[in-house]
Amino acid sequence: MSVLGYQDIVNGPLAQYLALSYKIGGDVAKQAEFVKLAFEAQLQYVSLATQCSQPGQDKQMALLKPTSDQITAIQDFREKNRASPFFNHLSAISESIPALGWVCVSPTPGPHVKEMNDAGQFYTNRVLKEWKEKDVTHVEWARAWMQTLTELQQYIKQFHTTGLVWSGKGIAAAPPPPPMGACPPPPPPPTFDLSSLSLDGSKDERSALFAEINQGEAITKNLKKVTADMQTHKNPTLRTGPAPFKATQFGSVSATGPAAASMVKDPIFTRDGKKWLIEYQKNNPNLLVENAEMNNVVYVFKSEGSTLAVKGKVNNIVMDSCKKCSLLFDSVVASVEFVNCQSVQMQVLGHVPTISIDKTDGCQMYLSKQSLGVEVVSSKSSEMNIMLPEDSGDYTELPLPEQFKTTISGKTLKTVCVDSLG
């Protein structure tokens, strides 16, 4: 039943998502191919769990590699197509596809899927907002994907509540997974050389051991004296040891040493149609966008220690995965957005209707008098402050709330901000 339940997801909401992806076409359809392969690989893994007992960790990682490779391909495809007109679609899938890592989560795999679904919802909401008046196909696409992960969570709750179940018995209705192969046969029993055994106590090694123990106090004469340089409390260098092993998460890849150095990319500052792409800038205080138009979008990605000035009025400015960066701009038509950033600040000289902050730690917003009607939408963020201008030219600092209290009122929830006393 576990396999059949997973097949219902593949043939139901996932099939609908794939059909809508192919209908939209372009980058959405290309990414959907990776998603299809990822779910097929996981279906084979779930099928294997119904036939075998749980293998060792090394064997599990080898069996999970097909799924892990597809997750990496989905995320890489998004990174390589940041200028795509369907970037929000690609990001919605890229942010939430780690939900397939539930097979490695115990004892709460269901909540893990919900957490990943919520992570992608930031971008699915963008798709709904952008396309609800243009093309209903995109709206149905976003809902089909969210429904896929919702049903995956329900499936886990029904069949694998505390983690993937390795039942060790085959199910007739489930076809064997051809790529994975069958479970390895058990190792042969160890062989013993009976000729080496002897009933003669004088030749038994245990006799020698007992004889040595029976020496009494004389047994200590062969012990080595512990000197001061051998004692850990007098020699701190002896206390250091190897670093503890830390297990990596499913589908994650860590890069250190020369491999990490090879991932450093060249800075990019270019204009692609209506989009200004500013990526991988480091310690550059002189970034300038000028001669921009009202329908232009400025996108800043993975930059550090840099300052960007935007002259004129543009439609939208996005800072994604930036650290210790500053933004100075005149006016925007739609919004300024900060996603996955650390220690960033912005100053508006003209008008900004909306500021969106998502998964960001440290955001200072200096407003102008024309922007006092701004709406600030924040989620999963901390250390946010709004700086209000005064007639003297100074600013008044107001922190955005990070704590909330929710109470139940009938069949609804009432949520209010809680002032921090710490």
Automatic annotation (TrEMBL):
Any GO MF annotation of the entry: actin binding
Gene3D superfamilies found in the cross-reference section: 2.160.20.70, Adenylate cyclase-associated CAP, N-terminal domain
GO BP terms: actin filament organization; cAMP-mediated signaling; cell morphogenesis
Gene Ontology cellular component list: cytoplasm; plasma membrane
Keywords carried by this UniProt record: Cell membrane, Membrane
Membrane-related topology note: Peripheral membrane protein
InterPro entries in the cross-refs: Adenylate_cyclase-assoc_CAP, Adenylate_cyclase-assoc_CAP_C, C-CAP_CF_C-like, CAP/MinC_C, CAP_C_sf, CAP_CS_C, CAP_N, CAP_N_sf
Name of this chain's protein: Adenylyl cyclase-associated protein
Organism: Glossina austeni (Savannah tsetse fly)
Source species taxonomy: Eukaryota, Metazoa, Ecdysozoa, Arthropoda, Hexapoda
